[in-house]
Design a protein that fits this description.
Elements: E1 6-9, E2 22-25, E3 28-36, E4 41-45, E5 52-57, E6 63-68, E7 74-80, E8 90-93, E9 105-114, E10 120-127, E11 138-139
Antiparallel strand pairs: 1-4, 2-3, 2-11, 3-4, 5-6, 5-8, 6-7, 7-10, 8-9, 9-10
């Protein structure tokens, strides 16, 4: 449901997975493993505010940080005032954090605004993956 930011899968340590591994679907980034038991694992979805992903705009190569909102969208923060970002831009993982391989699709910019402080901008991002209709995911073993 839309109030849940985790899902449980039937793979655990016995299947070779470890805490922190990224989780994807054919459409893009889903999240990362937050807890691993012997036969199951809990996935923290990218929609959770506790999960931050270093990201980059595919077109302009501007870097930012994706944060979840527990809603149907994500927010890309820490964009400079002069950032070249427009609605429709694709957002991918930047590879700056070793947890996520570079170039995984995160989503598409739907809106751009100014932070309350006026020092930076943010972009509202629609996730590439329907996080609340997942049936199958892939765990990236690194």
């Amino acid at each position: 449901d839309s109030w849940t930011s985790t899902i449980i899968v039937d793979k655990g340590r016995s299947g070779g997975v470890r805490r922190g591994m990224p989780v994807i679907s054919p459409l893009g980034l889903v999240g990362r493993l937050s807890e691993v038991s012997e036969i199951t694992s809990k996935i923290l979805l990218i929609s959770d505010p506790a999960l931050n992903v270093s990201s980059i705009l595919q077109r302009s190569r501007q870097e930012g940080l994706i944060t979840g909102t527990l809603g149907s969208h994500l927010v890309m923060r820490y964009l400079p005032q002069d950032a070249d970002v427009v609605s429709g831009d694709e957002v991918v993982t930047s590879g700056l954090n070793a947890l996520y391989p570079k170039g995984l699709l995160i989503g598409t910019v739907t809106d751009v605004g100014n932070e309350f402080s006026g020092l930076s901008r943010y972009a509202v991002v629609k996730p590439a993956v329907n996080l609340y209709g997942l049936e199958e995911v892939l765990i990236v073993v690194q």
